[in-house]
Specification:
alpha/beta; globular; 6 strands; 5 helices
Length: about 200
């Protein structure tokens, strides 16, 4: 297909199918046509995540996609920070256990690192960045506290969701419904701020 154009188009700046699916749900109903990189021709290269903070990575991804495509772009950088691991896996949450590790392998290895650890506090953090084709970027933050479970539970979500127990809830992020997750997750909280910004008169 030819590259879509128009001020109502909004590019979800991620090649991650799980993130794409969540952002489509989180931004549903807005006056915008949501597209992903695979919808474009040529398909833009996915920017490298080489920043020192979640903010730097999110801003870089959103700006790179927006400038390359001429489309308003929403991108985020998010991760899991475990207190007992001094904030790891953090910025490298997806790659911490190797580029080719599956979600199940990452979860198993993280649980192995915490074997015998009683203080299992953790947080999910998300920085969402909204960029325009001229390079301007705004950022929005979301965070949810919890702890790491003793074993995976739940079939929903993706990534570390099956081992993250939501503070005060008792269920993992993978055990709640999609609607519940969107109302309380780090990405859902950041997306609510993005929605409010996109709803403002331009």
């Amino acid at each position: 297909m030819s590259t879509p154009r128009g001020e109502h188009l909004l590019l979800i700046g991620s090649g991650n199918p799980g993130k794409q699916r969540e952002w489509r749900d989180l931004l549903a109903g807005l006056d915008a046509v949501l597209v992903v990189p695979q919808d474009l021709d040529p398909v833009p290269a996915e920017p490298e995540e080489n920043g020192a903070t979640f903010v730097e990575n999110a801003v870089h991804k959103a700006r790179s996609y927006a400038v390359a495509t001429g489309l308003r772009t929403i991108a985020d950088d998010s991760g899991l920070e475990v207190d007992a691991l001094h904030g790891a896996p953090g910025l490298r949450s997806r790659r911490f256990f190797g580029e080719d590790a599956s979600a199940e392998q990452r979860n198993a290895r993280l649980l192995a690192m915490l074997e015998g650890v009683r203080a299992r506090g953790a947080r999910f953090v998300c920085i969402a960045a909204l960029a325009t084709a001229d390079g301007r970027v705004e950022t929005f933050e979301g965070e949810v506290r919890g702890e790491i479970a003793e074993s995976p539970s739940g079939e929903g979500g993706f990534g570390y969701d099956p081992i993250f127990v939501i503070a005060g809830d008792g269920r993992t992020m993978a055990e709640v419904s999609a609607d519940e997750k969107h109302s309380l997750s780090h990405r859902g909280l950041a997306a609510a701020k993005v929605r409010a910004r996109l709803a403002e008169p331009r």
